Each structure stands twice: as C-alpha cells, then as structure tokens.
Amino acid sequence: MKTLEGYAARPTSDRVKESLFNIIMEYLADAYVLDLYAGTGSLGIEALSRGARLAVFVDKSVKSTGLIKENLINTKLIDRGIVIKGEIFNVLYGFFQKEVKFDIIFLDPPYNKGLAEETLKVIGKENMLSANGIISTETGSNENIPLEIGTLQLVSHRKYGNTALAFYKKQQNMSKA
C-alpha cells in the first residue's frame, strides 16, 4: 500500500493495526465502515479485506484522497470504497442529515489537537453509530480519553508506546467488547 511522503501523515503502525483488528474482528462481517481522517485509507482498506461490506473514507487533503483511491484500485477494492474529500465536521453533518449509520468508525486524527474528543462528541450527538457498532479512536498515549462522551461510553483503552487505542460503544448496548 502506498503512503504519503513527509511528516503530515502518520500511518498506524503494523503492531497497533494488528491489535486493533484482533479487538474488532467480530464486528467486521458485512460492516459499514467510516474511516475519518483517513490518510492513506489503510484502516478502512484492511476492514474491507477482512470482510466489511463498504467503507467510506473521509479526509480533507487532496493528496490523501487521491492516494486512498489509488490504494483501493491497487487492492481491487475500489467497488466497495467511497472516498470523500471534505472537512470532517461538514461531512459528518451531511451523514446526520441523511440518517446514515455505521457499524465501525475509525477515528485517527492528528495527535494532541483535541480532534478525537471533538469528533466523538459529534458522532455521539448525531447518533451515527449503529446499535451494535464500535468506534476505534487512535490518539497519542498522553491524550486525555473521556470515559463517557454524549451517548458513547469507553469500553477499552490500550497503550502501545506513543499511541493509544480507545474503543467506544453506545451506552445502552455494553454487552460486546
């Protein structure tokens, strides 16, 4: 899979990605996936390769969205991916207006900018997670991770060096995790 040159993109390490997919494996079959701050699209593409039905990739960078399309073509998954170039919060509002829900949401914003918490607030408020869905949030290991945020509740938090993964589910459905 192709990656972006330079420091602007911070791809998820193989170790973290493998741990992430071991944790969410039971959610992947026929899932509708939203990959926010998608970068190269590696998380959404991995989900597609492991059985997700459809992945929507959102990034504000022209370079990133072009690279995601190229990676989808190279992996022969282009027919199951939708790539959107846009500001995350505007795109989320558009999904809310259409009452779109996702089974898995990957959230991998730039570290230490408060974007993870801000984005989780919007997702929870606008009810974009399916009833049995899960959100995977990748942050810097030193970032504050709220236990609850709107209708979402933290179900697992794991640290891998400078990276942390936090998993959220809807509060009324805490059985799977």
Number of strands: 8
**Secondary-structure element sequence?**
HEHEHEHEHEEEE
Helix content: 25-40%
Question: Structural class of the secondary elements?
Answer: alpha/beta
What is the overall shape? globular
Measure the end-to-end span.
Answer: 29 Å
How would you sum up the major sheet?
Answer: 8 strands, mixed
At CATH level 3, the topology is Rossmann fold
Task: Quote the beta fraction.
Answer: 25-35%
Number of helices: 5
Q: What is the averaged pLDDT score?
A: 90
Do you know the CATH architecture?
3-Layer(aba) Sandwich
CATH class division = Alpha Beta
Q: Spans with pLDDT under 50 lasting ≥5 residues? A: 173-177
Report the C-alpha radius of gyration, rounded: 15 Å
CATH superfamily: Vaccinia Virus protein VP39
Describe the structure.
The chain is of the alpha/beta class. The chain has a single domain (14-85, 98-163), classed as Rossmann fold (3-Layer(aba) Sandwich). The model is unreliable at 173-177 (pLDDT under 50). The protein is globular and about 40 Å long. The protein contains five helices and eight strands, in the order H-E-H-E-H-E-H-E-H-E-E-E-E.
